[in-house]
Amino acid sequence: MSLLNGLSISDNHRRTIAATMTLLDKQLSQLERYCRGQTFKGPLYLERDDLSLWQKDSILKEIDATRRVLTEMRDHLALPVTAERFTEMTRAKSSILWASLVELESSHLQRYGRLPDGFGPAHDLMLQFILARLDAISHITRETHRP
């Protein structure tokens, strides 16, 4: 029997609860990936798996228990399920990163002090290449089929 049986909440309460619980569920999903060994490795960023098998198993059990309560809340409070589309996530993250990357142009970096001679053109060329790749990724998400 649910603790929430027969209780009714307003739409404002429902939206507030749903937003926070969705963020929680999203973070639990990320943590579950880590515990299942799905880590990221790039040239400048990597995730180091330093959890023991016991820790991973224990965390997965806690995630499962938490999700049982989230499911109960969803069912009894009529919380909406949020489905994030990869295309939208990719475009949003690309836009955020694009704005940050533009701030790394040599003209903007001058705010932090004089740059070495020759650094600006070489750095800006690499940065423009990265920005073009980011734009290409964003563009790919707008296409529904391969041309």
Largest sheet: none
Proportion in helices: 55-70%
Approximately what portion of the residues adopt beta-strand conformation? under 5%
Unreliable segments of 5+ consecutive residues: none
Number of helices: 5
Choose one word for the global shape. elongated
Mean pLDDT: 91
SSE ordering: HHHHH
- Rg of Cα set: 22 Å
Alpha carbon gap, first and last residue: 54 Å
Helices and strands: which structural class? mainly alpha
Number of domains: 2
Secondary structure tally: strands: 0
Task: Describe the fold and architecture.
The chain has 147 residues and is mainly α. The chain folds into two domains: 11-77; 86-142. The protein contains five helices and no strands. The radius of gyration is 22 Å and the shape is elongated. The model has no long low-confidence stretch (mean pLDDT 91).
